Amino acid sequence: MTINCEQAVQILSEAARGGARPSELPASCRPSSVAEALTIQDLLVVRLSGEVAGWKVGTDPLGLALWGAIFAADCFASPAQITDGDQWKPLGVEGEIAFRFERDLPCRADLYTRSEIEEVLVAFPAMEIVSSRFADYRQAPFLDRVADRVSNGGMVIGTPRPDWRSFDLAHLRVTLDIDGTEKLNQIGGHPKVDPLLPAVDFIHARQAEKTFRAGQFMTTGTFTGLIFGKSDQCITVDFQGFGAVKLTIG
User: What string of DSSP letters covers 70-91?
Assistant: First the structure.
């Protein structure tokens, strides 16, 4: 069955602009594969006219690379403050390590090696703000969420570490506290262990048709799990020795 991508884009763009939030996409426009979900997402990004500053990247249960566009208007330097509101629902936060392109990585057919990729990147601590254009993020089908920019709401961006290669990023101690009370303290925790691996997979998936531009970034998955914030909270994620990010919810 050929799905109606335009219908999906219309529903998601209206929700992103403050309209009704569906529980899921109708059967007529519901993606049945990662490729269909990403096609809807590409059209949605065009419809919303947002400047893409970067991507949240990962893989599906079968190991296929997937990504969600992050808009420049939704990126905030740490310490950041947002006002609690519908835009951010359900106000999830995740502590992550992200990578920014310091130089262009040109489009090419031959896969870049890991060392070639590392040469053009700088790493920094980050906090993703997870939000959804669906009525209930947790109940929305997985592929619907992929079409919805993988439920990205925004990013809190920490200080870049040009010396990032000297750190064992897989085994950093990470803490998360809310209003000064520690909620998490552990070593590592990334689902792929090494946070650079999803970035490499993403680049390999797209490099044949895309040049990555200096200044764009990739955030590569949570170390802390998904924590739901509330109004009047201050949340801090600290990758000890590497850097911290802070978000206050007004």
Answer: EEGGGEEESSEEE--SGGGTT-
Please name the amino acid found at residue 77. A
What does the CA dihedral 44, 91, 184, 81 come to, rounded to 10 degrees? 100
Whole-angstrom Cα distance, residue 84 to residue 9? Answer: 26
| Residue 196, token pair as written in the block | 């650079």
- 157's enclosing H/E stretch is strand 152-157
> Are 147 and 41 a contacting pair, CB within 8 Å?
yes
Per-residue pLDDT, averaged over 66-72, amounts to: 98
Locate all alpha helices (DSSP H) within the chain, ordered by sequence: 5-16, 34-48, 114-119, 142-147, 196-206
Is the CB of residue 240 less than 8 Å from the CB of residue 174?
A: yes
Torsion of CA 160, 162, 167, 172, to 10 degrees: 0
Span 52-249 CATH architecture: Alpha-Beta Complex (3.90)
Q: What is the pLDDT of residues 86-136, one digit of tens each?
A: 899 999 999 999 999 999 999 999 999 999 999 999 999 999 999 999 999
What does the DSSP 8-state code read for residue 209?
T
65 residue type, one letter: A
Tell me how many degrees the CA angle 43-146-38 measures, rounded to the nearest 5.
40
Helices 34-48 + 5-16 axis angle, to 10: 50
pLDDT, position 62: 86
- Summarize pLDDT for 172-210 with one digit per residue, the tens: 999 999 999 999 999 999 999 999 999 999 999 999 999
